[in-house]
Design brief:
Order of helices and strands: HHHEEEEHEHEHEHH
Shape: elongated
Oligomer: single chain
Largest sheet: 5 strands, mixed
Radius of gyration: 21 Å
Helix content: 25-40%
Number of helices: 8
CATH superfamily of the largest domain: GTP cyclohydrolase I, C-terminal domain/NADPH-dependent 7-cyano-7-deazaguanine reductase, N-terminal domain
Number of domains: 2
CATH class of the largest domain: Alpha Beta
Bound molecules: zinc ion
Distance between the termini: 50 Å
Length: 202
């Protein structure tokens, strides 16, 4: 395919823009980046990728900075069914699903709307689901030193569904149980029964 020849000299890679790299990628998969539908695709890909990886430039302390409150409350706080979208670091394909986050305070709480944002800080990076789950739990622990934190994530991985094993129905569940959620079965069970629902694989 001569007309789709590579436009990048190997020596020039350092100075090549992200857009040019995506254009090159289109050529390498056998496409013609000059056809109408693809003309602005490298630009769109660049923007999409910047959005999907913007967690790298987000900072937990900044996200939570005005949302930590002193309270006299020591019952479990749960935010469930938090929609999240991430990308697996092995194939750079999406995995997405629901996160359920709970903690038992120890004098401090986090503004409820900040929990989904905290999930995004770590989801919008290249990830493995296990690490993502753990990072959310650790960030809450560091921010408010609660009596315990629990994070459960259920996700579908496009790298499994679209390629390879093509297991369309499988969902992957990961959990991080810290503090009282690890040591007290009753606390853990209370959390699990509150998030369990019909159709869930939990
Ligand atoms: Zn993957």
């Amino acid at each position: 395919m001569a007309r789709n020849a590579s436009t990048i000299e190997p020596a020039a890679l350092d100075t090549v823009s992200t857009r040019e790299l995506y254009r090159e990628l289109l050529v390498r998969v056998g496409e013609d980046p000059n056809r109408d539908g693809l003309l602005r695709t490298p630009e769109r890909m660049e923007k999409a990728m910047a959005f999907l990886t913007k967690g790298y430039s987000m900072d937990v302390t900044e996200v939570l900075h005005d949302a930590l409150f002193d309270v006299d409350y020591d019952e479990m706080v749960i935010v469930k069914d938090i929609e999240f979208y991430s990308m697996c670091e092995h194939h750079m394909l999406p995995f997405f699903g629901k996160a359920h986050v709970a903690y038992v305070p120890n004098g401090k709480v986090i503004g409820l709307s900040k929990i989904p944002r905290l999930v995004d800080v770590f989801a919008r990076r290249l990830q493995v689901q296990e690490r993502l789950t753990r990072q959310i739990g650790d960030a809450i622990t560091e921010a408010i030193h609660p009596q315990g934190v629990a994070v459960i994530m259920e996700a579908a991985h496009l790298c499994m569904m679209m390629r390879g094993v093509e297991k369309q129905e499988s969902s992957t569940v990961t959990s991080a149980m810290l503090g009282v959620f690890k040591t007290q079965m009753q606390t853990r069970n209370e959390f699990l029964s509150l998030i369990r629902r019909q159709g869930s694989s939990l």
